[in-house]
């Protein structure tokens, strides 16, 4: 079954697409790569300088540990996150 047949995954992808209207980079699961030019793998968090990029991220709650710690730390200070649905969380570091 394709992820595009799963309502939770589609809702998360749509939330990530919405975030791409404001972010330079949106860190996403590998399944979403190719859906938008701003999408990059979650692991890219480790190479990004949050002071130089408007970074958003969308990942499953089980994958949040794959984000670089400074993305989550900045996220905590600014409280810019919400659940895309019961499975995915969407956040921004700007």
Describe the structure concisely:
By secondary structure, the chain is an alpha/beta fold.
Blueprint of the fold:
Blueprint: H1 7-19, E1 25-28, E2 39-41, E3 55-60, H2 69-78, E4 81-83, E5 88-92
Parallel strand pairs: 1-2, 1-3
Antiparallel strand pairs: 3-5, 4-5
Describe the overall structure.
It is a single chain. By secondary structure, the chain is α/β, with parallel strands linked by helices. The chain is built from 2 helices and 5 strands; from the N terminus they run αβββαββ. The chain has a 5-stranded mixed beta sheet with strand order 2-1-3-5-4, with helices on one face. The protein is globular.
As a percent range, the share of strand residues is 15-25%
The largest pleated sheet is described as: 5 strands, mixed
Number of strands: 5
Separation of the first and last Cα atoms: 35 Å
Give helix and strand order, one letter per element, not per position: HEEEHEE
Strands side by side in the biggest sheet? 2-1-3-5-4
* Separate helix tally: 2
- Give the overall shape, derived from the CA principal axes: globular
Mean pLDDT: 82
Gyration radius, in Å: 12 Å
The assigned structural class equals: alpha/beta
